[in-house]
Amino acid sequence: MLKSARKKEKDPEGRMPLVEHLRELRNRLGKAILAIMVASIVGVVFYQEIINFLTRPVQEAVGCTRDFTELAKESKGACGNITMSGLMGPFTLMIKVSLTAGVVIASPVWLYQLWAFIAPGLHRHEKRYSMAFVAAGFPLFMVGAYFSYHVLPAAAEVLLEFTPDDTVNLLPLDELLDLVTRMVIVFGLSFELPLVLVMMNMTGLVKGRRMLGWWRGMVMGVTVFAAFATPTVDPVSMFSLAAPIILLYFLATGFALMNDRRKREREALGPADDEASELDLTPEDIGEVEAVSVSKALPAQVEPERERINGYDDVT
Asked: 0.85 exceeded by the pTM?
């Protein structure tokens, strides 16, 4: 009975009482947190491999051919400059790296739980658009992260050249991982710019012609951003970041122009056979109303005049 009572027929429009919404949110959050915890355990198991992967760009910048964990016991030359301090430092770093890896590994699960909580309140076309945006957003973020990871060696090499002679530059591992994570996030989010523009065009906030008119400012802004995001003086690294973003911007502008033309053609054709036309609720002036006599307006309610004899009718 309890099991059948829980499986009630859901409202097709996703409406439910507040208590049901809170219960649904609790279940979705529980599943997402459980997935992150399991993925974090996987991050603990592969903790050393994750550290080697994140520190490899800096190691390559100083000419190291071996992983950081193989060189941790050696404090010779430039390869041993990545350090840690404090008794609790390694443990804290392990927890931080494992949780971050857990969030990344479990992203398909908690993104689906978020989608499952929001989707019942969306219309069919809104579900279709949101699924397309999510499907395009994740690959774009990964492409940006890929570019940042391959720009890091050149950036580290340039930055380490500012170290004074006869000095050793000690690189704290926690600060190094923060720098790598920050660059990955910045590069990944920068590749989401075309997707944001497409979303604004789909909702009618920005037209394609206006986006096309922004091209000079967008090229300049992306170039300046690439100059600050890549702390190197060579134009190759700047171009490697700016060129894909500019290309994606023009692709988004082309999509917006085609979408605007499609909307105009659809509006010119009018509503489809299975769609209701819009009602014109504007009041109209009906002019002056002519006065009508009571006898003409209500002929059935006016009694005929009775015949009178000697001043009296037949009743009296």
From this structure: no
